[in-house]
Structure formats: structure tokens, C-alpha cells
Amino acid sequence: MNLRKLAAATILAIGTTMLAASPAHAANIAANPGFEDGLTGWTCTASSGATAVSSPVHGGSKALQATPVGSDTARCQQTVAVKPSSSYSLSGWVRGGYVFLGVTGTGTTDQSTWTSSPSAYSQLTRTFTTGASTSSVTIYVNSWYGQGAYQADDIVLDGPPGAAVPAVPGNVTGTSTPSTATLKWAASEGATSYNVYRDNVKVGSTSSTTYTDVGAAAGSHVYQVTAVNAAGESGRSESVTLVLGNDNPQVPATPTGLTGTGGSNSATLKWTAVTGATSYNVYRGGTKVGSATTTTYTEALPPGTYAYQVTAVNAVGESAKSAQVAVMVGGDAPPPATPTGLTAAVNGNTVTLNWNTASGAPTGYNVYRGNTKVASPTATTFSEVLAGGTYAYQVSAFNPVGESPKSAPITVTVGPGDPPAKRVLVGYLHASFANGSGYIRMADVPKEWDFINLSFGEPTSVTSGDIRFQQCPVAECPNVEPEADFIAAIKAKQAQGKKVLISIGGQNGQVQLTTTAARDKFVQSVGAIIDKYGLDGLDVDFEGHSLYLNQGDTNLAAPTTPVIVNLISALKSLKAKYGSKFVLTMAPETFFVQLGYQFYGPGANGSADQRAGSYLPVIHAMRDDLTLLHVQDYNSGPITGLDNQYHTMGNADFHVAMTDMLLAGFPIAGNVNNVFPALRPDQVAIGLPAATYAGGGFTSVAEVQKAFDCLAKGTNCGSYKPRAGVKPGLRGLMTWSINWDKYNNFEFSRNHRAYLDALN
């Protein structure tokens, strides 16, 4: 379930078919391949903490170790001189959660590959041919977002050597004046020129071994030099720090004399200039709203009273904020006018209101059902799901000055129908293992959880289809309850209206139903687990390499890949066996679902990862029997949403964009004739980690609820606006895991249970 996500843009390159050219057989032309000389010859990203360690190693006495931080994947690389139109073999031994080995700049098809081998070294290999004009390539090794430290050793680039890239310049020194920085260095053999970098940005080139930088801002700057020839550019030299201008620069003083005047729809500020300031920042209500290089600032605003402060800025930093000044905009301007054109439409149990934009610069609208205010959207539309009955609505507009009178009422009648589905919390219970979060007995699972997924049922082998489940061993979980108590507690939870499922797969449980025999064994063995423990159904949490699409398998409605076809058949058999009360949920990763908007299987040329979007045909085939789909919106790389922009995990916009794809549907790999249709809102929940240590991409309580507000109420939306519109029936939230939530003092379940209950 956790630590299984890879970024779409990089993963799709790793399945590239190896070229047919025969590998060369020559001495290793990579420099310092075993890191016996530390990082000599290698350049690593700044925040990776890259170093040569003495354990664990594959060969020799040293190995590389680096750690990804934030968006830094801890890449280490070196540029190697090669011959044009020649064959090469790249290999290396790596160890870690996800480790990539690759080559760029080949002039033909760049190559990369990866493995997940956290406890032992594993060898990665790729071959490639250089282009007709290629004189150097860059080989690299890196990890991925949210992973721990990785190790690499014995990197081999096997093939004919080319003209060498010059050595890194040495003996770099520098002097400075108030306006210039002058650098000198020792010549590098074979260099035809040198590049000079200031603060990691190239600022000039020279053919000599000296360079004067003119015009840099006053303050401290870090300089480095590289050597260049036809084969390429060397690594960067040791850095030299030089101070220009004042040797002890200071932040500017706090601005004084701040005044403000308000117009009918604007505020204008003025203040006294500060010596040494290069610009000024303007704050309204404590939030930065703009910058100025002069001592005046104007912005347009609706009527109201606003509090301003100003700071002074230079290369060293920012001053403290000035004294506050209040500015009234609009004077005694009236509140906005009453909205007109209120209409209502009823679709099943969903009521949707629309109205015209009110005049008078409204900042939002209040929606009243009867005499109760039920929402304050900023848009001119609102939807909600109601039980059968007759309801009267009115709408008003508001801005900082006040609220308009209410519109004329409009009455709607909702058919008897079903009341809105209860919002649910879905959690995974570590029932068969312990991982530091602590074992929780079934009887002690808190009341907040509606769906309890027992983690995990796993296969006896990858392709056997034979699924087994057993409670956590006493040696691993000393407080594990006897099996009879475990089963009794399951029944007690079910009597309280909870659903208890067996979750199959997880991070370690690879399940590939490659044959009909494996399919039939899957049905038999999963049924045996459900029957033994009296469970309500099945959660499909296939990860890693369980699902994939063969070349040419592109029709969503008619898949042909055996692991897909057999899984669909198995799920239909289980549904038929247990009938209408059978609960079926799925917990795929974004790579297997939303990535299908861009890539589907290996693609037309077979170069993409065959797992991309591979859950889609399973979801589509089971959509009429699917209870809940809760995609894991965590441990994910950036994913393209329906706005054709990349979205990165850990914030409300990511969850809105990913969930909107399920609620709106999307063309698969851009093919409008092969569309994944929208799911019902009551079939969709948002998947999240319960705490920062439960998985990458943890999202705060406030951001999660902001996302749910946007999707279910049309309020609190950020930059991404849902294409599916408001979906009041959005079902709830899933988390990995119940155990990590308890470890984190129940922050997830208690806050979100109260929030979902309030929506109900």
C-alpha cells in the first residue's frame, strides 16, 4: 500500500526496448566507477547528501549513498567521452527502494531502467548506440520522491573511449571589489574554454584562466568554474565565495511615513524611501499582495476597510514590517444588488441552483434553504443532495460592505428516492504484520471507521493465484488476539454496520493471474478466506507488477492481456457467488489509473511502461458491481489532470484534480474514441496517508477538507476547477492506515469523521 508510487513522466521512459546492437567489449570508461575516490568524477544534486560510504558495498571498500529530499531525486552523474556511431553497455549495482540507472545525450534513444531492491544489491543493465555526431554522454543514478537513502556501486560503461572531457579546473581563487569579482584558476589539459558560474547560474565564458564578473548585486556570491572542449564540459570546480560591496551587508531599515488613501474602488499607499532598498513588499492583512520599486503602490479592491504594512528589500534580505495603516475603499458604498435569474433543476435527489452575477462587486453569495443559510459559494451555482420533499430557496450577494436582500424564493420538489449515501471512512488494519505503528486488535478498532480492510492476503507465489491470510504472529505482534476472538470481533463490528473486507496484494503481494488455473485458484482461496472469517467482501490492492497491458491491448472495453482478463473473470465469479451484498473496493495507485489520460500500456511504439493505466479495464468491467474506488493519492509523482497541467501531491488541488478525473471521465491516452466513463460519486473516495510517516504526500486536515469542499460543495476551490461540476454524493475518505492514525493520536479519523458527519 505504501511506498509504491513512481512519477509518471520518468517511469514511462524506463520500459524502453533495448537496442539490438551488440555491446562493446572494452575497458570500463567511467571514471571512479566504484566510488573508491569518494565522489571524484561525479556531480550530485546539492541536497542529496551524497557521500561515499564503507557499508553496504557491492565491491571494493566504498559505495555511493545519497538520499532524495523533496523534489530532489538525489541524482549523481558524470559526463563520459564516447565515439560516434558506437555501441555501449551501461551497468551498475544498486540497492534501495527505487533506484534508476540511465544515460542521456546519446544522440539516438536515451536509456534508463530501475529496480526496487531495498535489502540487497541488484544489477541494472542497458545498451545503447551513439549518434553520428555524439562525442559524450551523461550516465546517472538516482532514486525517487519520498524514498530513503540508496546505494550504488561498480558502475560500468563498456565501449570504446572517446576524446576526453577536460579535467575539473583546480586552484580556483578570487578577489573582489565593491563592484567586481575576479577569478583565477589552473589550466585544464585539453580545455578550449572555461565557463564561470555565479550562484549556480552560468554568467560567462573565457578562453583564458581568469575572469572578471562585473555588475553582480552587492552581497555574498558563490563562484565555480568548468572546463570545456569538443567532448563536453567538465564537472564544476570547488566553490569560491566572494563578497561584493559592503563586506558586512545589512538588511534595509523598516520603512516609515506610510500613508494610505482610498478611492471608490482602489487603495493607494505612499511611504518614505529607505537607503539601500532595491524594492518594497506590500502586505494587506498580513499577506503579501505586491511589490514596488518606487515608494508608491495602488491596487483595485471592492469596498471595505483594509490594513496595510510595507517592508524594504535588498540582496541581503527583507526588513521588518512598517507600522500599520488602515485604508477605506468605497466610502459608504452600498452592498451588492440582489441576485436575479434564480433557477433550479432537480436530477434524482440532486438540486442545482443557478443565478445571474449580481452588480456591485460581490465577493460571494449566500444560499438559503428555508430560513437556513446552507452555503456561501463564490460562483453563481450551487448543488446539494436531499431526501424527498419540497424545498424553498433564496440567494443573496455580499461583499465587505454588507449583504444584499434575498432574491425572490423558488420552490423545488425532490422525489422520494433514497437519502444521500452516508459518508464513509475507509481504513486499512495491519492484521497480518507489524511495521512500527503498533498492532490493534479488531475489537479495539475505533468507531469512526466504516470500512475495515484486513491487510493483507498475499499469494503463495506471484503466479499461483493461491491467496493466504493469517493473523500477525505472536513473535511480531505480542498482543495479537486469539483467532476466535478476532472472528467474534469482526461479527461485532458488522453488527454495528461496519464492513470488514480482506485486502489482497499490498506492497509485497504481487498477484499475476496469468492462467485460468491461477484465476480459479484465486476465486477458491479468496472465497475460503471470506467464509472462514465471515467477511463482507474483497478489496483489490494490486500494486507493483501485478497488472500490465500487452502490446496492442488498447480497447478499454475488450482487454486481451491474461492478467487483466483473468482478474475480471475472477471478480465476476466472486460477485456471482456472494450476490448483491458482496462489497468490492479497489485501491490502485495513480500510475495505474489517472496516468491513463496520457499513457496506456506500452503504447504504439512499445517504449512506455506496460503498467500505465492498466487498472482502467478492470475498473470499467466491474463498475456496475464496484462499491468504492479509492485511488492512492500519495507516494505519487506529478500527474497530468484534465487541465493538462501537472499536479503534485500533498495539497488540495492534487486531490481535486485526481478525483475529478474519476467523476468526469477522460479519453485514454488522448483517444476520444476510447474513453474511461465517469464513475458515480457514491463509488468514489479519496485515498490519503494518515500521517507523515505513513507515506509520501501527506496532506493536512485543512487541505483535505478544502479539497472535499471543492468537489462536494463547489466551495474552497483553488486553482483547479472540477470539470465534472459539483458532486455532493462524493462518498468519503480512505487512509493508510488505521494503525498509523492511532500512532498519530487519531488526527485523521477524529477530524475527518466530524467533518463528514457534518456534511451528512
TrEMBL record:
The keyword Signal applies. Keywords: Carbohydrate metabolism, Glycosidase, Hydrolase, Polysaccharide degradation, Signal. Its EC number is 3.2.1.14. Residues 1-26 form the signal peptide. One of its GO terms (molecular function) is endochitinase activity. Residues 251-332, 335-417 form the Fibronectin type-III domain. One of its GO terms (biological process) is polysaccharide catabolic process. Residues 423-759 form the GH18 domain. The keyword NAD does not apply. PROSITE patterns: FN3, GH18_1, GH18_2. Pfam families: CBM_4_9, fn3, Glyco_hydro_18. It is an enzyme of class 3 (hydrolase). Belongs to the glycosyl hydrolase 18 family. Chitinase class II subfamily. This is chitinase.
